[in-house]
Amino acid sequence: MNKGIYIATMEEDSGKSLISLGLMQTLLGKTDKVGYFRPIIDDFPEGQKDNHIETILSHFDIEIPYEKAYGVTRKELVDKRNEGKAGEIIDVIIQKYKDLEEQFNFVLVEGTDFSVKGNVFEFDTNVTVAKNLGLPTIIISSGKDKTQKELVDALNFAYSSFNNRDVKVIGVVANKIQEENIEKVKVDLDKFFPKEVEVSIVPMINTLLHPTIKEIVEELDGKVLFGETHLNNQTGSFGVGAMQLRNYITKLKENSLVITPGDRADIILGALQAHISANYPPISGIILTGGLIPEDSILKLIEGLSQIVPIVSVQGGTFGVTNQIGSIKSQIYKDSKQKIMTSLAVSDKYLNLDSLTEKLFNFQPKALTPKMFQYSLYKRAQQSRKRIVLPEGTDERILIATMRLIALDIVDITLLGNIDKIKNKIADLGLNIDLSKVSVIDPVHSDKYEDYSETFYELRKHKNVNMDMARDMMADVSYFGTMMIHKGDADGMVSGAAHTTQHTIRPALQFIKTKPGVSVVSSVFFMCLEDRVSVFGDCAINPNPNAAELAEIAISSAESSKAFGIEPKIAMLSYSSGTSGKGEDVDRVREATEIVRSKRPDLKIEGPIQYDAAVDATVGKSKLPDSEVAGQASVLIFPDLNTGNNTYKAVQRETGALAIGPMLQGLNKPVNDLSRGCTVDDVFNTVIITAIQAQGI
User: Fold this and answer.
1) Dihedral over Cα of 69, 204, 348, 388: its sign
2) Among the listed residues 596, 587, 582, 581, the one whose alpha carbon sits nearest the alpha carbon of residue 548
3) Strand 604-609 relative to strand 238-240: parallel, antiparallel, unpaired?
4) pTM of the full structure
């Protein structure tokens, strides 16, 4: 059975990282353990590491020691070849690859970078390595600085070379193609390649070509004067600040890089003021040329500004520095979060990743692993694009999650709050959020404010609510966001990063209300453990449910489990298993279990049952040998909030499990509550599951 894929390119700067990132994400969604390997890497000074390896291992949290993620260095390869012992290099590469193959279900292998110009052996080395590892291959070539004929001929040559050496090519990628040429290139490539070879065309993505400020600092050996925490800012266009300020600021564009002599205080201060102003686009940084540093009074003025961008002093004249920056070949580093997310979105959009992976392996996993579950969430959210409102628009975690969601392009986000405060917060955090791709609404100044207030008044006047009270309620972001859902202007809401659970849920209970036949709003967490995903309920809403409520929570949790691809096997947890226990608490769980069996005989359920008997096969078999749930429970229902909340947090902290949720269940439309201690990942994942809920899945 094949357990790997080889990614080969034909030249340097081909955009191979984009394909590796996209393919790794897809593979992790289809199997739980994917390794990464580079047969040959460049030589680095002491303390430096291969950027490709660091980026992949870090972003996807792959546990491989750096030394085991590559075969040999370029120098080792050349030395052995010069000694006539090239075969020894192949032996080392094969051994290291096989070690990873034994540890992982699948291994993504990334070929060389062609960083040494004119190296005629490099292409042949990639063919040799792929052949000796017995791996199918994807070939990548860049269309940059090539004619269409040159690109097509290059890919044809590469395909023939691999094919003639009995290396199976399953896909070819023409990367960095101008948008207007995509269809013409596709027609030419389809003429040559057989149907079983996947042909993908990826356009030129300008944001991936521009360097970060950090790359510029390293290339020019610059001295960072201000804004060191924002060195990962992504640059856009750049231009020289040589004209008068009144003319120069009109030239600024989104994420412009300002290049100006260090004694041009007017340009420096004007560009910083434009960055702060709502009337001009934000800049990414300022490069001061000539080794000149502004005088102390100007430095003091800059230091006192509320918002700052990286300001870097470099040696060299303005003309030469500008040319140097223009020639930088930008890369994707482990800290380049925006570039990584952009790469994942681009690869998902333009590469036939699902078709490619189907060619690699065909299997049914025994269990839904966390990586597979997260991948399935991402794919489900894509099926039907939904509009999610985030009331806490100035919260740092909300904004960072929004940036990630925009990059993936799978939901439409509405932020609630004052537009200027949101812009200032984005600038303070150094985030690159394109607000043209986000809806920002200030409730009180919204054209929907009066209509929403009148609707709320009509819905609640029987509770003695008057119009003044209704307007006050609609000025509250939680009430406004919930009304957006009620009126059909949004599909779901995620709140709670800065508000209490009651503040988030109360508006939903007042006018979104519960589904027919549901009397209890409850919650579940999707607990992504090392080798499985379990559903925990209720860990966030109901303090002391009675037997009927507990039964309803179990049924709702089972439905949520099925909706998200997890077969529900329900364990009604207690301090006793089976019929041995006595007492009010265990009797309540026993009664709830019987209610579920009566209402839903189709569901697999066991209760009362202890946690260890529910999840451990050996314990489950010893305590309840005839149970079809014991030892393999996927839905665990806790008897009360105290037990549930503490257990999920204990499991999360002690095992390192990812807890996705809480996801509220029972409402007519999805409103989900975050913890005030939530992380960016919590926000991101909760938005995704809210979008899926809104699809009615």
Assistant:
1) positive
2) 596
3) unpaired
4) 0.69
Question: 285 φ, ψ to 5°?
Answer: 175, 175
12-60 pLDDT per residue, tens:
888 888 999 999 999 988 887 899 999 999 888 888 888 899 999 999 9
* Tokens encoding 294: 């502004």
Q: Reduce the DSSP state of residue 142 to 3 states and report it.
A: strand
* Domains, in order of start, for the chain: 4-208+338-366 (3.40.50.300), 213-328 (3.40.1390.20), 380-404+411-513 (3.40.50.10950), 514-666 (3.40.50.10750)
**Per-state percent for the chain, helix, strand, coil, to nearest 5:** 50, 20, 35
Nearest-CA neighbor of 663 among 560, 542, 533, 572?
Answer: 560
Range 620-649 average pLDDT? 91
How buried is 92 (Cβ within 10 angstroms: 0-12 exposed, 13-18 middle, 19+ buried)? middle
Please report, for residues 170, 339, 574, 607, 631, the alpha-carbon distance to residue 627 in angstroms, rounded to integers and kept in the order given.
46, 50, 16, 10, 9
* CB proximity list for 652: less than 8 A, separation 6 or greater: 527, 658, 659
Q: What is the DSSP letter of 425?
A: H
Residues with Cβ within 8 Å of 425's Cβ and at least 6 positions away in sequence, in order, are 394, 396, 399
Answer whether 185's CB lies under 8 Å from 152's CB.
Answer: yes
Interhelix angle 467-474/477-486, rounded to 10 degrees, is: 100
DSSP 511: I
Three-state secondary structure string covering 383-401: HCCEEEEECCCCCHHHHHH
The pLDDT tens digits of the residues spanning 429-482 come to 888 888 889 999 999 999 999 999 999 999 998 988 899 999 999 999 999 999
Judge contact between 411 and 385, C-beta under 8 A.
yes
Q: What pLDDT, in 10s, does the model give residues 164-210?
A: 888 889 999 999 998 888 889 988 898 888 888 889 999 988 878 88
Ranges of H-type helices in 114-256: 121-133, 148-164, 182-192, 206-209, 213-220, 245-248
The Cβ of residue 404 has, within 10 Å, a number of other Cβ atoms equal to 19
Average pLDDT over every residue of 271-294: 91
Residues forming a β-bridge with 525: 536
Q: Within a 10 A sphere around the Cβ of 251, how many other Cβ atoms?
A: 13
Question: In terms of DSSP bridges, do strands 522-528 and 492-495 run parallel, antiparallel, or are they unpaired?
Answer: unpaired
Per DSSP, 515 falls in state P
Contact 376, 565 (CB under 8 A): yes
CA separation for the pair 137, 144 (Å, rounded): 22
CA 504 – CA 482 distance, rounded (Å): 9
If phi over 0 gives left and psi between -120 and 50 gives alpha, with beta otherwise, what is residue 496?
Answer: left
Dihedral class, residue 307 (left if φ above 0, else alpha if ψ from -120 to 50, else beta): beta
CA–CA separation, 365 and 374 (whole Å): 15
User: Is the distance from CB of 520 to CB of 552 less than 8 angstroms?
Assistant: yes
Q: What is the mean pLDDT of residues 49-73?
A: 92
Residue 638: phi and psi, rounded to 5, are -90, 145
Which stretches does DSSP call E strand in 31-150? 34-41, 70-73, 106-110, 137-142
Closest CA to 481 of 626, 203, 645, 673: 673
Tokens of 556: 């709702």
Cis peptide upstream of residue 662 (ω within 30 degrees of 0): yes
Q: Compute the C-alpha angle 451/456/457, nearest 5°.
A: 95
Number of Cβ within a 10 Å radius of residue 293: 15
Angle at 432 between CA 313 and CA 269, to 5 degrees: 40
**Separation of alpha carbons 176 and 580, rounded Å:** 68
